[in-house]
Amino acid sequence: MKKILIALLFFIAAHPLMAQDEGNSLYSIQYSIGFPTGSFHDDFIARTSFRGVSIDFRKMVNEDMFAGLEFGWNVFYSKLENAIATEGTTTISGTQFRYMSVFPILVNFGYSRRTSENLTTYAALGLGTIYNRSRLDIGIWQFTNEAWHFALKPEIGLFYKTGHDMGILLNGKYYSAFETDKSMEIAYFTANLGLIWIF
Amino acid sequence: MKRAKLTTLLAAIGLLLFGCYPEGPEYIDEFDLVLTNYDPVFSFTGKNQYAMPDSIVKIDGSVANGDPPAFLSEPVASDILNRIETNMTSHGYTRVADASQADFILFPSEVELTYTSVYYDYYYYWDWYYPCCYGWYYPYTVVSSYTTGSIIMNLMSPHDVTASGKMLVTWTGLLNGVLDYSGTGADKLSRIYKGIDQAFAQSKTYLHP
Fold it and tell me: Is the pTM of this model over 0.80?
């Protein structure tokens, strides 16, 4: 985990130098809607999250290929009334409030293709880590957990240039945070809409 | 130009992150909790008579201090006992007056605990005469407290004694919630009734003769 973080910090530190080439760097901020899937959906939170943000930095390494960094935050939440949980011979019932905050930190590699003068489509693969912090409230009791996961993320999207140096970005991402000894596997899909700036 | 873009980006991030955390409990009954537990070795089959006291003891340390035990006031105690009896009857049990003839003794009890937290807060002011500066008022103390109450139902088997010489607890039902002193008697009891009903409902697979 430390090595990944050091590599990411090195990348961030080096990035301002790379960004000096005008027009080769892209920065974006995206509003993110999250849809839980798999066991995350079935066992913890099924509800769609409308609280999310993603920040993306990209650098074109040639005409088609790019590499970049991504930071995100999605907050998943669910309220379960009269929820019943059984562990062994003990059964607890009551209103449960479930929260899951996920923070992806990923290095992205992708391929983009300009399909018209203003429209570019792309596909990318992200690799890195997802930090999650979960909380379960029942009665006056609160249970929290946190974990770092190894994570993968395929992504497809497009951006439409609305001006000389900016445009609108639309994409879909599928995050897969692998199970750890402290946390279940967390998988979710996000649909994102944002602004992109070209430097 | 670059600086303007960066400022726009940071402002957008700030707006998006602002107020991003979802809501929590809004009503006091959303803190209510029902817990049940049972002895998996004990067989409930063929045992259908139980005895129950006519009062609910308050666990407040009075007995440990050498004082006589305290009891929950009437008519609240009787209302709660009647609700427990209704649920026991619907599960197939018959209440008997003679405890020595009973298969079980159901002991209801009540516990109240008050949690208090103290923290310091402060607030700042802004004066339009001095737009560059903020000032600080002296911090003030905030005391916050809440009281939780629990109704505990222990179903004991007087014919089974544990290794430590105590009666075996075959089943426990516990209701826990934040006490609300503002409601009327009926409102308060409705939450307790709901909890008692739930405790028996979630035990129906094994709690029957």
Answer: no
